[in-house]
Description:
Oligomer: single chain
Strand order of the largest sheet: 3-2-1-4-5-7-11
Keywords: NAD
Protein name: SDR family oxidoreductase
CATH topology of the domain at 5-161 and 188-215 and 260-275: Rossmann fold
Shape: globular
Number of helices: 11
InterPro entries: NAD(P)-bd_dom_sf
Amino acid sequence: MTDPRLFVFGPGYSARVFADRLRAEGWRIAATCRSEEKKAELEAQGIEAFLFDRGRPLADAKAALAGTTHLLVSIPPDGKGDPVLDQHARDLADLRTLDWAGYLSTTGVYGDTGGEWVSEASWLKPTGERQKRRVEAERGWLNLYRQYGVPMHLFRLAGIYGPGRSAIDSVRDGIAKRVDKPGQVFCRIHVDDIAGTLRASMARPTLGAIYNVADDLPSPSHEVVEYACRLLGVEPPPLVPFDQAEMSPMAASFYTDCRRVKNDRIKRQLGVTLSYPDYRAGLEAQLAAGL
């Protein structure tokens, strides 16, 4: 039996947490990066590293991908499309050792529902360019399964948080804001629960499957910041109306959509039990761990 090898296109926050979990189990890990400096850093940690970017495909894709049993893609599409598909779709279609492949997408593909619930069967109505690119990327990855049998699974992630990227961290850094937009809620997911869901999918592969990955409690962002402040024993920042809040265009764009995301499928089909079913559990655990 082949020793399992995970190849990661784009080891960002979520993908790296997942890869580290598998590495602790004895898996071989390979990942792409965009600089020689990052390549040396990954290699020093025992990860095979390969340079990759738009306009810079893997130098020897066949050699880099050889022996890969599991593939995770977390690089977002750019203005030209999906850089992995555009440059290596044929290489992946020819990869006969592959047992499982996952693409990390976003619940942003559902667009704005005015706070109504969405499931994996809901219509995709992306509102912004970034979300529209995601829809096209999803189609491309599913086509790779339908046309060539690549064992793809799509994971639509809600807003990701965890140690280093949580309301606790933003409060500590003095950058937390409490913005009030009546009726607005956000869905979120702890990074550890993303890793747990991916691991569960590997154990129960269903080719071509799509999964929402979100916790049980959609809630306003200002409530999350307030709870983080309470845990830290500090005064929360003032509640500012949305139309008076000073935010970057990117931050403000997240308030364009409002939806609630159903997570029944990962529980029913994959047997997932969320470690952090709501933001309170996630923030409390982070603080208890001294992170």
